[in-house]
Amino acid sequence: MRYPARMDVRKILHIDMDAFYASVEQRDDPALRGKPVAVGSASARGVVAAASYEARTFGVKSALPSVTALRRCPDLVFVRPRFDVYKSVSRQIHAIFAEFTPVIQPLSLDEAYLDVTANLRNLPTAWATAKAIRARILEETGLTASAGISYNKFLAKLASDHRKPNGQFAVTPDMGAAWVETLPVSRFHGVGPVTARKMASLGIKTGADLRAKSRAFLAEHFGSAADWYYAIARGIDDRPVNPDRIRKSSGSETTFRSDLTEPADIEAGVLEMAEDVWRWCDGAQAFGRTVTVKVKYQDFQQITRSRSATRPIRTRADLHEASLALIRSVLPTPKGIRLVGVTVSNFDGTDAEALPLFDALLSQT
Length: 365
Known about the structure:
Distance between the termini: 40 Å
CATH class of the largest domain: Alpha Beta
CATH topology of the largest domain: Alpha-Beta Plaits
Low-confidence stretches: 1-7, 349-365
Protein name: DNA polymerase IV
Structural class: alpha+beta
GO cellular component, one term: cytosol
Cofactor: Mg(2+)
Enzyme class: transferase
CATH superfamily of the largest domain: Reverse transcriptase/Diguanylate cyclase domain
Domain UmuC: 12-192
């Protein structure tokens, strides 16, 4: 990896909608505006899918158990998710992106990378382009977005968080490496909570700490990820914005209201998830050869069972049969099961076209 030459510096945006699901709900229901809102289920088994900024001030965030969220914020208002609405709004947003550049890499329903080195509106700067995109999103959807602007994807993503909500921040080639040194490594893409704790135990808490470590030291402790950590500590990321990312899998999972032990009940849950996956595969005409069933037990132990066929699975019945065979391999269960999931992967190359990630089937909890 190298620093880009000044003559060919890319102009990369990372656009991220502000509290997307919750903001859509507040937009559509004025009674929710200004209140702490969580999208999800308030049941004992529920999980927060998204939280408004009012809720976040109480420490409510996505993936938090609903009972914990309510303890932190007794006035929290739960709203059931409307994924069809979120997907519709996402399509509006991505259509706006396309007004400015064809080089778009969706990451999810509410965020994407854009390469605006040569933008379609002939705007003079990436800053002006980001500002115009955010204004169009607000005009079209009534929602706010934040933007990170930089010469590479790593820095653009970091920058989009810097002025949230409803703001934008630019990291120029002259400031990139020095800016990275000031940040905690826990904010870096590719450094999850487990890795951040390991880094802290090695005395690596900031970008400056990471940069001080040799490539050999990083390879010893982090293996194949060493080159990535070495590069980002210096603000280097040569990855292009890739508008043709291939969808590698389609999956759905559900958390049961109570732990299940009866085989018939568990099999019914697996079939429901298989049906969700089949609807996506059939609609997208993308068929995979590998089926995986995921099981999470009441003590949070997690296992998976997979089966690969010689040809893509092209019928609902075949997917149901494979899913049932896999779950039956762990039945009867010695302990309660709280979650099951089904995933189809290993798509046939003739069918797995460049499927937009924002059309992905969303797992429901």
